[in-house]
Design brief:
- It is a single chain.
- The chain is an alpha/beta fold.
- The longest helix has 19 residues.
- The chain contains 21 helices and 21 strands.
- The C terminus is likely disordered.
- Helices cover 36% and strands 18% of the residues.
């Protein structure tokens, strides 16, 4: 799609058609211009084509979209209700645009034999709305008209119009039409001729603003789902990374707070809870807690005991919180409970039981919204994982399952590449993010001893396109063993990390958000964050670098019962645009004898 987003001021019908065309599958070699200005117009000072489609193997189609509430065509004259120029003849607009396009290509010596057809599309009307059930006369063909029902299958409509155009004119001795004359390479050539490129260089700052604006627009469209399900008090939003689950949760929390309800928003991850608190924590009737912090608060404790182990977090603390809530109901009493990353809580029956006790009314009569994705269940060994949807239905048997399968965050190229690496393909049915959005996945083989040099080179390259604060380095390891930790404390590397200019540069760039816990004094002004994959789960960044894909990392996963592939998948999908994996274990090699990524269960 050129441009990749619908133009400002486009009518509702144009937006409908744009979204329909942008969502087509299997048309990667098609080129579609939107709101194409025809300055080199043969008949007037200027003109515009709503859409021009270059479909290799089919031909060229010029589309005029009319946002008419009703249409009257009588004696060759048009009247389009609610249209800015109700009496303007749309057929003349189309024919003028076609003549101008043909004249332009002829002048450049690029006019070929591919068909150039036209389509008049009324997305607000259906064919059965017409009094005359067989529209068509000497001025137009019935198959030149598109209706509301065609929005669901735009590719069928386009191909049908082009095929019928060729069929009608095939026997005309003065016209030579060859749809195959427009191949993928010729389509690229015409694309450059119709809209030539020139270069300027956007700064990372301007690119960040552009990306943020696009993300906000796409995520806000997803919020419309809340209107569709607002009559249901129990919702489970299930979707892959990038489908907008957290954005929906935040929108729902704001809406509930504005209605006067006391709302609890919680998640397992501390860093994600901090992000949620920044977004909505200031609302008077909203409490935001990390799951562990919530349990401590309910139990009347300030912090976890020193050297607290699994038994404390899995059994003792939730049992104590349950006991204190039963004795002191005022500590809970929420009208609505919203849980992000529900799969991290679902596997522990005590945690689920605690959720039941947090509402003022019985939970069946309260508002409960859960967001989750079973494939991102990396906080537990694989043998202890559960189906998050099954757990949600056990908690609330009548819960409405809302499957989110539209990509609202990730570069489609990145999403598809990650899916291919892990053998489950593209988990999205539709990419709302434009297909030509910059981004992708890079797997870089790292020779032993070159980890620091490779990381520095990778981050310098990313610096050219992304602000440092929008880059994050992730590891399967926590604070003690990751490459980033060793870079900041090279004395811990047993001499494996030597003093170098790359090391000094990285020490100035990297920072940690957990300085007190780690004991590291990060350089003031450093902006590139580093975390473990587990602590960063649920968050995202423009660019992500994965380190420690090593034999040591794989062994660590196996000894702790974790699925290394699942953990990598979660880390890689934290990236919105670009992910770089530094592979020092040849984990992604394909030749025989290499360690291969296993297909995630389910």
């Amino acid at each position: 799609m050129i441009p990749p987003a619908v133009r400002a001021g486009a009518s509702g019908s144009e937006r409908q058609v744009f979204n329909a065309l942008e969502g087509m599958q299997g048309t990667d070699d098609w080129v579609i211009f939107h709101s194409l200005s025809v300055a080199q117009n043969l008949e007037q000072m200027e003109g515009e084509a709503d859409f021009v489609v270059l479909a290799p193997g089919k031909g060229i189609l010029i589309i005029e979209v009319k946002d008419a509430k009703s249409v009257t065509y009588k004696d060759g004259e048009w009247y389009l209700e609610k249209n800015p120029s109700p009496n303007k003849d749309p057929l003349k607009q189309l024919n003028s645009a076609r003549r101008s396009l043909r004249g332009f290509l002829k002048a450049k010596g690029q006019l070929g034999t591919e068909p150039i057809a036209t389509l008049l599309w009324f997305p607000r009307l259906d064919r059965h709305d017409l009094d005359n059930q067989s529209p068509g006369d000497l001025q137009l063909f019935e198959w030149q008209l598109g209706w509301a029902s065609d929005v669901a299958k735009p590719q069928n409509l386009i191909e049908s119009v082009l095929e019928r155009f060729v069929e009608f004119y095939r026997n005309n001795k003065g016209i030579d039409l060859n749809p195959q004359g427009l191949g993928p390479e010729r389509a690229k050539l015409l694309r450059k001729s119709i809209l030539s490129d020139f270069e300027g260089y956007a700064s990372p700052e301007s690119e960040t603003k552009r990306r943020k604006a696009q993300e906000r627009e796409l995520l806000d469209e997803q919020v419309l789902l809340l209107d569709m399900v607002e009559t249901n008090n129990h919702l489970y939003f299930d979707g892959p990374p990038g489908s907008g689950k957290t954005h929906l949760l935040l929108a729902a929390a704001k809406k509930l707070a504005l209605s006067g309800k006391k709302v609890l928003v919680t998640c397992y991850n501390l860093l994600l809870a901090e992000e949620l608190d920044t977004a909505i924590g200031a609302l008077d009737t909203v409490d935001v807690y990390a799951w562990n912090s919530l349990q401590l608060n309910l139990a009347g404790l300030a912090e976890n005991p020193d050297n607290a182990g699994g038994a404390w977090f899995e059994q003792e603390l939730p049992a104590l919180a349950l006991e204190q809530v039963a004795a002191n109901p005022h500590r809970a009493g929420y009208d609505a409970i919203l849980v992000d990353e529900f799969q991290d809580i679902a596997a522990n029956p005590l945690h689920v039981d605690l959720l039941r006790t947090l509402t003022a009314e019985p939970i069946e009569k309260s508002t409960v919204i859960l967001c989750g994705d079973t494939k991102q269940q990396i906080m537990r060994p694989s043998g202890e994982q559960v189906d998050a949807l099954v757990a949600a239905r056990a908690l609330l048997p009548g819960i409405v399952h809302v499957r989110l399968r539209r990509n609202c965050r990730m570069s489609p190229a990145l999403a598809k590449a990650i899916g291919k690496k892990f053998y489950f393909g593209d988990r999205f049915i539709n990419h709302r993010v434009p297909q030509n959005t910059e981004g992708g996945l890079d797997i870089i083989a790292v020779e032993p001893g070159h980890e620091v040099k490779t990381l520095a080179k990778t981050l310098r390259s990313l610096h050219e396109h992304y602000l440092p604060e929008n880059i994050v380095v992730l590891s399967i390891f926590g604070l003690k063993q990751s490459l980033s930790r060793l870079i900041l404390e090279p004395e811990r590397s047993d001499g494996a990390i030597a003093e170098s200019s790359d090391l000094k540069w990285l020490q100035k760039q990297l920072r940690t958000d957990t300085i007190q816990e780690s004991g590291i004094e990060a350089t003031i002004g450093a902006q590139i964050r580093w975390h473990s994959i587990f602590k960063y789960k649920g968050l995202d960044a423009d660019a992500v670098v994965i380190t420690d894909v090593s034999v040591k990392g794989i062994e660590f996963a196996h000894t702790t019962g974790l699925e290394f592939a699942e953990t990598l998948f979660v880390g890689m999908t934290r990236a919105k645009y670009r992910c770089v994996v530094l592979d020092s274990a040849e984990y992604f090699m394909h030749q025989s004898g290499g360690v291969r990524a296993k297909k995630p269960p389910g």
